[in-house]
Write a structure and sequence with these properties.
By secondary structure, the chain is of the alpha/beta class. It is built from eleven helices and 13 strands. Strands 8-9-7-10-13-12-11 form a seven-stranded mixed sheet. Strands 2-1-3-4-6-5 form a six-stranded parallel sheet, sandwiched between helices. Strand 12 (about 295-305) and strand 13 form a beta hairpin. Helix 1 packs across helix 11. Bound molecules: NADP nicotinamide-adenine-dinucleotide phosphate (NAP). This is Putative [LysW]-L-2-aminoadipate/[LysW]-L-glutamate phosphate reductase.
Length: about 350
Amino acid sequence: MVSVGVVGASGYVGGEILRLLLQHGGVDVTLATSRTMKGEYVFKAHPNLKGFTELKFTDDDPVTAASKVDLLFLSVPHGSSVKVTPEIVEMGTRLIDMTGDFRLKDPSLYPIWYGFEHPAPDLLPRFVYGLPETHREEIRNARFVANPGCIASSTIYSLLPFARSGMINDVTVVDAKTGSSASGNAANRASVYSERYNSIRPYRAAGHRHTAEIEQELSQHAGRKVKVALSAHAVNMVRGIQTTSSVFTDREVAEVDVWKIMRQTYRGEPFVRFIRDRDGVYRLPDPKITVGSNFVDIGFEIDRHTGRVVVISTIDNLIKGAAGNSVHSMNLMLGFPETQGLSTIPLHPA
Ligand SMILES: NC(=O)c1ccc[n+]([C@@H]2O[C@H](COP(=O)([O-])OP(=O)(O)OC[C@H]3O[C@@H](n4cnc5c(N)ncnc54)[C@H](OP(=O)(O)O)[C@@H]3O)[C@@H](O)[C@H]2O)c1
């Protein structure tokens, strides 16, 4: 059986990768690292895993970890992956990097969006952007995958049909709402319950770093430079991302046109659902309805008054926005059925 390991396994994303891998059936989880919880059972950090594994955390550094497994998930903070990745690439171990360190193809964008000069620009082309619906064949043949950001994934899913069909305008306005787990489990002043609870905090009204990867991917599909004006808010949820995008179109667009490009883009995709109903509580996507699953839910409304299509997309940030997409990529890289380990039906009520 293929052996896999997770570095940064005490974090939220690392915990979700472990949960998905433990019920996958085709891989053996042989290693989970945490520098602060060495020697502890992984269920000390992730109590939901009690009874499913007796694995204990090690404090192997990422390079040593990579030497012990066939495929490694690197689930550490931005900026710490690039310090160790060159050695792992040299070693050749299959790697799925959850950070933003290898998502951008143009090294000149790193100082602008991430605040550092990229120390290994020659490695950027060796990483495939890990969105299975858009880079399926490249991921299948990849050894190194850069898993997308959570807000980026949700936005790309909703705008991809418009980029591909040429319906997208030069600038698209995107309003993102995100749950608290999106910023990881390290405590800080902003994450204190009394500050975070009941708040709608515009934590990045402009300049969100996911803008760069969204523009990179959409521009590729549009065949020209497209921009997104992204504003991100922290809202009162633990899990979930909702992106509401205003696509201003050059021509009048009918419902049937939007359905057509949505179906053309996502026909046969196992993890994309269209949500648009005439009545009921959940007429359009709500992140609550994706919790626990690898689905992205997409819906739309046409606003004839201003000539825009409002596209709403929702995901569970920890799954379709992180761990689930990475396991989907792992399935492609290792030749498993794409949905293996990812068929969980979302919770309701959540
Ligand atoms: N949360 C999300 O929804 C989400 C979505 C998409 C992508 N991501 C990305 O996924 C990565 C992990 O996110 P997260 O939310 O799981 O963060 P997290 O909860 O803060 O976990 C990060 C883990 O990395 C370990 N760590 C920290 N610094 C390290 C270092 N220098 N070397 C090795 N290990 C280190 C920490 O464990 P120890 O200190 O015990 O070693 C910690 O458990 C980040 O790059 C994040 O941006 C997160």
